[in-house]
Design a protein that fits this description.
Elements: E1 3-6, E2 13-17, H1 22-39, H2 44-60, H3 62-73, H4 77-102, E3 105-108, E4 113-120, E5 123-127, H5 135-147, E6 150-154, H6 160-172, E7 180-182, H7 190-195, E8 199-205, H8 208-220, E9 224-228, E10 233-237, H9 243-255, E11 265-271, H10 275-287, H11 307-322, E12 326-329, E13 344-347, H12 354-357, E14 364-370, H13 373-381, E15 385-386, E16 388-392, H14 396-405, E17 410-413, E18 428-429, E19 432-433, H15 438-443, E20 446-453, H16 463-467
Helix pairs in contact: 2-4, 3-4, 3-6, 4-5, 9-10
Length: 468
């Protein structure tokens, strides 16, 4: 597949890039290993300073980075700028908290001195998607670099300029050459990189199929892997919810990033007592969504990232309707240039249809009715995925039951699901395993080394003196 920038608003190829040759790839792997040997011993104060500088660049150059994102995958420009600024917040989070997360952890075993020392693993390969071309990368890179690991980025084929801009960003921030490198390689070369002994761990954000392939390759190579895969997140609304706020948030949660987000709400499960009114309001709001040029401030939904994604989504909608699912609005391919797809609402998904069983990666919502709390939980869990869930209720007993009963990695009550540097991010079931962000994210790619020192022996130097 070509490594190229294809403008989603026109379908025209703007820039193409040659994949790295075998010699170029070898040079980058060698540099990563050599850099890690020295970088792992750099002072934490230096890492903090470089990461803080990266945050400054992400904020000051948000317009430039935002244009790259919009140009390569169609994200509305305002959202693209906000993505760059959010990346800055992740960098600052680890500037503030990283040192504490890496500190030795004392354990009382009675008499002897014991502790856990957290040490970096080495080069971590990050296989990242196009939908959040900066955020997906930075939420891996910020904790990894703070921890003393080095990063190798294999980005999606359609966002090469974003990938190269990220490598340049960390270099300009002060990180040593080789601490973060972009690999312009084909999908077929990924297995070779995973198998390379200089690569110590792998993180992937992508589809379930990609997760199975990469997870299997990492498993055969006996390497740690974190997988953040697909999602078909439920958005549950109960009678005690503030309906107007729930509807407005539901539309936003479905259409974020043009509907192309793993944690976008996709299945809307509404209590039967309020279902008719919710459907009326939701459909009307989706009908009024402004679809257009992502560079225009008024645009709410821009094009999908590729023509293949658009055609695949439309096929899922058509098949679902043919099998008996109700189409309430949208569902027709737009004419003219660009990879646009209209905001679409389906209801009462036919059993076995794509709307009932598959992730719909675009601006398509599926509505269903629930009789009560237990029925809503059953419907929410009737999915192979388990990433996030949004629950709308002001009944505390209901909220507790949803928190305990829904099989996901995240549950948000009276709020849409969103990633936040302060909160661990990840899922269960076919949505993957492992966590990003917060304390959990920085420790995914560390060796938790147990140390026990029997009384009377000479104590080793402290972690602080080693890092300095």
């Amino acid at each position: 597949m070509a490594i190229a920038t294809i403008d989603p608003t026109t379908g025209k190829t703007l820039r193409s890039f040659n994949a790295h040759s075998a010699e170029e790839l070898e040079a980058r792997l060698k540099l990563a290993e050599e850099t890690f040997r020295a970088y792992r011993h750099t002072a934490l104060a230096d890492r903090r300073r470089w990461l803080a500088r990266a945050a400054e660049l992400l904020e000051s150059e948000a317009e430039h980075f935002g244009r790259l994102m919009t140009q390569e995958m169609g994200k509305p420009f305002e959202a693209a700028k906000a993505e760059s600024q959010k990346c800055a917040s992740a960098c600052r989070y680890y500037v503030e908290h990283g040192e504490a997360y890496l500190r030795d952890e004392s354990i009382d075993v009675g008499g002897d001195r014991s502790f856990v020392r957290y040490q970096p693993l080495g080069a971590v390969l990050a296989i990242m998607p196009w939908n959040f071309p900066f955020w997906q990368v930075v939420r891996f890179a910020a904790p990894a670099l703070m921890a003393g690991n080095v990063g190798l980025l294999k980005h999606a084929h359609n966002v090469p300029q974003c990938a190269l801009a990220l490598e340049d960003l960390f270099l300009r921030a002060g990180f040593p050459k080789g601490a973060f490198q972009t690999l312009l390689i084909e999908t077929g070369d990924i297995a070779r990189v995973i198998e390379d002994p200089r690569v110590k761990a792998v993180t992937l954000t992508g589809s379930e199929g990609a997760g199975r392939a990469v997870g299997g390759q990492a498993g055969r190579a006996l390497k740690k892997v974190v997988l953040e895969l697909g999602g078909s997140d439920p958005f549950i609304v109960m009678p005690s919810a503030k309906l107007e706020l729930a509807v407005e948030t539901a539309v936003k949660a479905r259409l974020i990033n043009n509907g192309q987000s793993c944690i976008a709400a996709k299945r809307f499960i509404v209590h039967e007592a309020i279902y008719p009114e919710f459907e009326r309001r939701f459909v009307e709001r989706m009908r009024r969504v402004v679809v257009g040029d992502p560079m225009e401030a008024k645009t709410e939904v821009g094009p999908l990232a590729t023509e293949g994604i658009r055609q695949g989504l439309h096929a899922q909608v058509e098949k679902s309707v043919a099998q008996g699912t109700r189409l309430l609005v949208g569902g027709k391919l737009s004419s003219g240039q660009g990879f646009y797809y209209p905001p679409t609402v389906l209801a009462d998904a036919a059993p076995g249809s794509p709307a009932a069983c598959e992730e719909l990666f675009g601006p398509v919502a599926v509505l269903s009715r629930a009789r009560d709390v237990e029925h809503a939980i059953t419907l929410a869990n009737d999915s192979p995925y388990g990433l996030g869930a949004s629950v709308w209720t002001h009944d505390e007993a209901e909220a507790r039951r949803f928190i305990d009963g829904i099989e996901t990695g995240m549950v948000f009550v009276n709020a849409m699901v969103a990633s936040d540097p302060r909160l661990p991010f990840g899922g269960v079931k076919h949505s993957g395993h492992g966590r990003e962000l917060a304390l959990h994210g920085i420790r995914e790619f560390l060796n938790a080394k147990t140390v026990r020192i029997t009384s009377g022996t000479t104590a080793p130097p402290t972690q602080a003196s080693v890092s300095e």
